[in-house]
Write a structure and sequence with these properties.
CATH superfamily of the largest domain: Winged helix-like DNA-binding domain superfamily/Winged helix DNA-binding domain
Radius of gyration: 18 Å
Shape: elongated
Strand order of the largest sheet: 1-3-2
Number of domains: 2
Number of strands: 5
CATH topology of the largest domain: Arc Repressor Mutant, subunit A
Helix content: 25-40%
Strand content: 5-15%
Distance between the termini: 24 Å
Number of helices: 7
Largest sheet: 3 strands, antiparallel
Oligomer: single chain
CATH architecture of the largest domain: Orthogonal Bundle
CATH class of the largest domain: Mainly Alpha
Length: 184
């Protein structure tokens, strides 16, 4: 897996779960702005994790092309692989919707939606699941050591596993938090 900065991980993680695969709107938790943000987006494009495509006039956009068309950034299959170790089995639709809130049901994420696919064998997410399945579970430090990720990235991965339908639970004993996952 290529080395990604925290900013790049946040961008790809947020984008990977969007139905249309668009980078925009950017996550509110993103701290990078201006030139630093542009460098991160350009680096993701250079690595082939994002691609440029024309967008509708009313949608958020990345830049304006020389012919006046607005261009946006969409996640690629390689970008999906960089986040979870495997491409999405359901490729994101490449339609750019206008800005504004859309009800969850309209985006296709209802409570009855099938879980996302399991991570590829040997990927870091698969390692995380294996550690969580142990009888004694795993602490954040165990997961950080196994993956090389920052603690906040590990917590985000645990949230992503829950979205995949994996039952990740948390216990707190004597101030120590331990995470567990039931066999999947």
């Amino acid at each position: 897996m290529p080395q990604l900065t925290d900013t790049q991980l946040v961008i790809l993680s947020a984008t990977a779960f969007r139905e249309n695969g668009s980078v925009f709107p950017l996550p509110k938790s993103l701290k990078a702005r201006g030139a630093a943000l542009n460098r991160s987006l350009e680096a993701l494009r250079a690595k082939g994790f994002l691609e440029e495509q024309p967008t509708t006039p009313d949608a958020e956009y990345w830049r304006e092309a020389s012919d006046g068309r607005r261009m946006t950034l969409l996640i690629t299959e390689d970008g999906q692989k960089a986040i979870d170790g495997a491409p999405s089995t359901t490729a994101p639709k490449r339609t750019n919707r206008p800005k504004g809130r859309v009800k969850k049901e309209a985006r296709g994420r209802t409570r009855d939606a099938p879980p996302l696919p399991a991570p590829r064998q040997g990927s870091k997410l698969a390692q995380v699941i294996d550690l969580l399945k142990r009888d004694r579970g795993a602490r954040i430090n165990d997961l950080v050591k196994a993956t090389g990720w920052q603690p906040h990235t590990v917590r985000a991965a645990l949230t992503g596993l829950r979205k995949r339908g994996i039952d990740v639970t948390r216990e707190r004993n004597d101030g120590i938090t331990t995470y567990y996952a039931k066999a999947v």
